Amino acid sequence: MNIAILGAKGMLGIDLSTVLQQHTLTLLDIGYGDITKSTELREILTLKQPHVVINCAAFTRVDDCESQKELAVRINGLAVADIAEICKDINAALIHISTDYVFDGTHENGYFEDDIPSPINTYGYSKLVGEKILQGEEIEGRKIDTQELKWYIVRLCWLYGKSGKNFVDTMIEVMKKNQEVKVVTDQWGKPTWTMDAARQIQLIAETLPESGIYHVSNEGIANRFQWVSKIKEVLALHTILIEGHSSDFPTPAKRPMYSPLVNTKLPPMRSWDKALEEYLS
Questions:
Q1: pTM of the model
Q2: CB-based burial of residue 236 (10 Å sphere; 0-12 exposed, 13-18 middle, 19+ buried)?
Q3: Catalytic residue among 123, 152, 258, 279
Q4: Residue 269, CB half-sphere, CA atoms under 13 Å: how many?
Q5: How many CA atoms lie within 13 A of 111 on its CB side?
Q6: Is position 111 annotated as part of the catalytic site?
Q7: pLDDT digits (tens, 9 = 90+) for 21-54
Q8: How far apart (Å, rounded) are the C-alpha atoms in residues 64 and 62?
Q9: Hey, CA dihedral for 12, 15, 17, 23, is it positive or negative?
Q10: DSSP characters for 143-192?
Q11: 56 DSSP assignment
Q12: What percent of the chain has pLDDT over 70?
């Protein structure tokens, strides 16, 4: 199978390249400007003729999205329309990576695949634009017919991995430099290792099930304090952790307080703590 990965040098893209290495891969290191240049992208994908295109390319700096809304919507949302049109023309399936941030974080039971999104920040809205476009809805002045396209929206939650800036590595650095560290207890989610997520996306790419929305995350729910406590335990660090709240760390973008993704369509993944242990080993 010929598979193209957009954003192949990003945190998820690198692990996808590893788990999919038995296939013929077209690895495109697409930057912010490149993904919006549909002519160049069309030429490459038409030449390579992939069976599946996995779109990992995104503007993921959540706080920066607040001051660069137009750019965020163009990259995370409107560019998806161009990619989808190309995939239709070359008869390729499209797997588009999205996020738990399309939700507002108020559902006490987490979020199922068919729950109605309600983003509370620009990043979440920009990713929702891409989702709506793939579902054939009109948004931000764009609408395309996706009935003849095999499409998959894959929502991820609290992603971390070896090949990019992430919460786990940041907190390790902070704990090694400070005797006391405050961590919030009021943000809940499902920490997810990119390698495990990549294996689940591999399953979608190789089997091409029914088009639709899929939730991919390690099982088990944790708040950020519990997540950091597990990191501290595994690495045997001596930092004193102090419970805090989101109000202690004001940011330009609001974060959903409770956004675990519930998976009802794919085989369950291993627990977040077991995945974290392997990541840190």
A1: 0.96
A2: exposed
A3: 123
A4: 32
A5: 32
A6: no
A7: 999 999 998 654 456 678 889 999 999 999 999 9
A8: 6
A9: negative
A10: ----TTS-EEEEEE-SEE-TTS--HHHHHHHHHHH-SEEEEESS-EE--E
A11: -
A12: 97
Place of tokens 């490149």: 34
Task: For residue range 92-121, list pLDDT tens digits in order.
Answer: 999 999 999 999 999 999 999 999 999 999
CA 199 – CA 76 distance, rounded (Å): 23
Q: Which residues contact 73 (CB under 8 A, 6 or more apart)?
A: 122, 125, 126, 129, 140
* Residue located via tokens 């579902």: 135
**Residue 214: which of 153, 151, 133, 132 has the closest Cα?**
153
What domains lie within the chain, and their CATH numbers?
2-159+190-216 (3.40.50.720), 167-189+221-257+271-280 (3.90.25.10)
Let me know how long the chain is.
281
